[in-house]
Specification:
Elements lengths: L2 H4 L1 H4 L2 H31 L3 H14 L3 H20 L3 H35 L5 H16 L1 H16 L4 H22 L14 H26 L16 H9 L2 H22 L3 H37 L3 H28 L1 H8 L3 H14 L2 H18 L3 H25 L5 H24 L8
Helix pairs in contact: 3-9, 3-13, 4-7, 4-13, 5-6, 5-8, 5-11, 5-12, 5-13, 6-7, 6-8, 7-10, 8-9, 8-10, 9-10, 12-18, 13-14, 13-16, 13-17, 14-17, 15-16, 16-19, 17-19, 18-19
Keywords: Antiport, Cell membrane, Ion transport, Membrane, Transmembrane, Transmembrane helix, Transport
Family: Belongs to the multi antimicrobial extrusion (MATE) (TC 2.A.66.1) family.
Function: Multidrug efflux pump.
Length: 457
């Protein structure tokens, strides 16, 4: 492979190259998010308790994602910069070590988390139906955690090499499998038909998810082993730990992992505040979380593409290219989120009604949607500019912005408004917007400071 072929992302038209990477990634993520929404619609047909149980588990479950974020964020910087330098041997080793090391970490995390899962869930609810739903959904998800982590790794590796179409295809197959299996596993009869199902309830929803994850990992792993014109990993390389690389996998992304930890811990505390308003409010938050995740997928696609180009550009010492990519990503994100915000403000009841018919839950969700969705405009700006941090490996700004916005702004605000003043739940939704304002201010300060321009891994 010649140097021109390898550096195609940093030599051609910036906007075209970013969209070339971002659009397939966005489509794949959106389809995955559509599955998440469909999944919540099915769960909503069981009961508000089922929705609340899955919501509580999902909040706790994302604490585990800290480990995935640490290693995954590190791997993006290492793979893209090695590839940008045209060091293919090191690129191959980083991909191999990412797969192996992340799987080992996931096994340890799954064992520990499975032991403490029930006590953690009991912190949020004493409702036996809610607790049972959370456990039915949770244990099997934990059992397949190593496969889930590895599935993320193969897709990340392919995107870092500039191949966004293959991960998109993998996610399409996985999401379609998930959507098909969900009603078959969950219900006694598939809704709208007389076809018998397995009637496994929320356990069936989790089972469909893990099966689709296994499919996704198998496809991606086979592609990496088979090899392409860009990269081919060695099976034997997966059984050899390289401490020089593994150390960087643990340390480069540590600020990002701590950022996820702080964000998710704050999510746990916020959910505790929300639970004081009752099961219907928790159910509304569960729906809102899925909607927020769905709306965030276009941002994730743009940022994934931007981080790849930024990393390769910095590896080739092209700082202007990296900066211009981040700015363009921010503009695209804000435009997309602006459109989604308008739709959400105009049709909140219709959006809530898609998920659940309970009028009390819908009523709670309307102001939630109208206040949460506009905050995505600010999130789009922050994440777009933040692609320079991921690409360079200078991830400390993410930690600072998350910690300060959540722990120094949002949680104190919630304590005062909901505990001391006992104000309505509307103040919970408002706290999210205030936190996003604080976060973008901190991101802008560090972006302009410019340390990312000289950081290399």
């Amino acid at each position: 492979m010649n140097n021109t072929e390898q550096n195609e992302l940093i030599t051609g038209n910036l906007k075209r190259n970013l969209l070339k990477l971002a659009l397939p990634t966005m489509f794949g993520f959106l389809l995955q998010a559509i599955y998440d929404i469909v999944d919540m619609i099915w769960i909503g047909q069981i009961s508000p308790s089922a929705v609340a149980g899955v919501t509580i588990f999902s909040t706790i479950f994302w604490l585990v994602s800290v480990l995935n974020e640490i290693i995954g964020s590190s791997s993006i910087s290492l793979i893209t910069q090695s590839y940008g330098k045209n060091d293919m041997e090191r690129t191959k080793k980083v991909v191999e070590q990412t797969l192996t090391f992340k799987a080992l970490v996931a096994i340890i995390a799954a064992l520990i988390f499975s032991i403490i899962l029930e006590p953690l869930l009991s912190f949020f609810t004493t409702d036996k139906e809610v607790l049972k739903a959370a456990l039915d959904y949770g244990y099997i998800r934990m059992f397949f955690l190593p496969i889930m982590f590895s599935s993320y790794s193969v897709n990340t590796a392919l995107r870092c090499l500039g191949d966004a179409k293959t991960p998109m295809k993998i996610m399409i197959v996985s999401s379609i499998a998930n959507i098909i299996l969900d009603p078959i596993f969950m219900f006694e009869k598939i809704p709208g038909t007389s076809i018998p199902g397995l009637n496994l309830g929320v356990f069936g929803a989790a089972l469909a998810t893990v099966i689709s994850t296994v499919i996704a990992f198998s496809m991606g792993f086979y592609i990496l082993l088979k090899g392409s014109e860009k990269l081919k990993i060695d099976f034997k390389g997966l059984f050899q730990l390289d401490w020089e690389i593994d150390k960087k996998l643990l340390t480069i992304g540590l600020p990002t992992g701590m950022e996820v930890l702080m964000r998710n811990l704050s999510g746990v505390i916020i959910l505790k505040f929300v639970s004081n308003y009752g099961t219907n409010t928790v159910a509304a938050v569960g729906i809102g979380t899925r909607l927020f995740s769905f709306a965030f997928m276009p941002i994730a696609g743009i940022v994934m593409g931007a981080s790849t180009i930024v990393g390769q550009a910095l590896g080739a010492e092209n700082i202007d290219r990296a900066r211009d990519t981040a700015k363009f990503a921010s503009v695209v994100n804000m435009i997309m989120m602006g459109i989604l915000t308008i739709i959400s403000i105009l049709f909140p009841s219709q959006i809530m009604g898609v998920f659940i018919k309970d009028p009390d839950v819908v009523k709670i969700g309307i102001p939630m949607i109208r206040l949460l969705m506009p905050s995505l405009i600010l999130a789009g700006l922050a994440m777009g500019l933040g692609s320079v941090f991921t690409g360079s490996g200078h991830n400390t700004p993410f930690l600072l912005s998350s910690f300060l916005s959540r722990w120094a702004v949002q949680i104190p605000m919630l304590f005062v408004t909901t505990k001391l003043l006992e104000l309505p739940v509307l103040w919970v939704w408002l706290s999210f917007f205030v936190a996003e304002v604080a976060e973008i201010i901190i991101i802008l300060i560090h972006y302009n400071e410019g340390k990312w321009k000289t950081k290399r891994v």
